[in-house]
């Protein structure tokens, strides 16, 4: 199993790229978001990969982040979602947006992707809503892509919200927003209170 490739981009197509790894060119299919993120021809790149094998075909799917690859695996576990549709969803939505859509039951957001109708979007939301908490959501990435390091109380605050009935992704995102606003000096109690306000909005 090939989990990751690092090399130089030889070619970029509409839905794939060729990555030269020590003289071997790997054809990697990817979402438009991944193709835009990895760079241009001649650039060095690291691609996280997933092999898809069928009776008639074998394809290497590529992703700019491990989080995208994890989401791809979850999406194709849903009946009716193949590799092409999963890549379309990952091209239309960021992983955090997919997490929020599933956590809140927003099938309309999932339907933004090409090839995803209302029925399939509803199935994706229903089948993945209990699994979304186990995925990497990157909740501490703030505006402009700036990464906000979580405070020492963040994990306890997330746990507290989950004990109050919030789903893992909802708790993580509420605490991330509260943590960014409150700063490093916030007590656990203050962080939980602020996170509850964020979650209520």
TrEMBL record:
Location of region: Domain I: 1-64
GO cellular component, one term: cytoplasm
Keywords for the protein's UniProt record, in alphabetical order: Cytoplasm, DNA damage, DNA recombination, DNA repair, DNA-binding
Helix-hairpin-helix DNA-binding motif class domain boundaries: 73-92, 108-127
GO MF annotations, alphabetized: ATP binding; four-way junction DNA binding; four-way junction helicase activity
Principal location class: cytoplasm
UniProt region (Domain III), positions on chain: 152-201
GO biological process: DNA recombination; DNA repair
Intracellular or extracellular location(s): Cytoplasm
UniProt cross-references to SUPFAM superfamilies, sorted A to Z: DNA helicase RuvA subunit, C-terminal domain, Nucleic acid-binding proteins, RuvA domain 2-like
A Pfam cross-reference name: RuvA_C
Purpose: The RuvA-RuvB-RuvC complex processes Holliday junction (HJ) DNA during genetic recombination and DNA repair, while the RuvA-RuvB complex plays an important role in the rescue of blocked DNA replication forks via replication fork reversal (RFR). RuvA specifically binds to HJ cruciform DNA, conferring on it an open structure. The RuvB hexamer acts as an ATP-dependent pump, pulling dsDNA into and through the RuvAB complex. HJ branch migration allows RuvC to scan DNA until it finds its consensus sequence, where it cleaves and resolves the cruciform DNA.
Similarity-based family: Belongs to the RuvA family.
Subunit description: Homotetramer. Forms an RuvA(8)-RuvB(12)-Holliday junction (HJ) complex. HJ DNA is sandwiched between 2 RuvA tetramers; dsDNA enters through RuvA and exits via RuvB. An RuvB hexamer assembles on each DNA strand where it exits the tetramer. Each RuvB hexamer is contacted by two RuvA subunits (via domain III) on 2 adjacent RuvB subunits; this complex drives branch migration. In the full resolvosome a probable DNA-RuvA(4)-RuvB(12)-RuvC(2) complex forms which resolves the HJ.
Protein name as catalogued: Holliday junction branch migration complex subunit RuvA
């Amino acid at each position: 199993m090939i989990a990751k490739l690092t090399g130089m981009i030889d070619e970029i197509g509409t839905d794939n790229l060729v990555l030269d790894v020590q003289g071997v060119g790997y054809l990697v299919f990817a979402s438009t978001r991944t193709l835009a993120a990895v760079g241009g021809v001649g650039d060095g790149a690291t691609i996280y990969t997933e092999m898809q094998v069928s009776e008639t075909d074998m394809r290497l799917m590529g992703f700019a982040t491990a989080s995208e690859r994890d989401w791809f695996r979850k999406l194709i576990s849903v009946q009716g979602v193949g590799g092409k549709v999963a890549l379309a969803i990952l091209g239309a939505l960021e992983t955090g947006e997919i997490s929020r859509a599933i956590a809140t039951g927003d099938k309309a957001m999932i339907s933004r992707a090409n090839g995803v109708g209302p029925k399939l979007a509803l199935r994706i939301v229903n089948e993945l809503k209990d699994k979304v908490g186990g995925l990497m959501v990157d909740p501490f990435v703030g505006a402009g892509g700036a990464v906000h390091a979580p405070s020492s109380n963040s994990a306890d605050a997330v746990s507290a919200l989950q004990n109050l009935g919030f789903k893992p992704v909802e708790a993580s995102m509420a605490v991330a927003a509260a943590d960014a606003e409150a700063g490093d000096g916030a007590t656990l109690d203050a962080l939980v209170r602020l996170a509850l306000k964020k979650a209520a909005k």
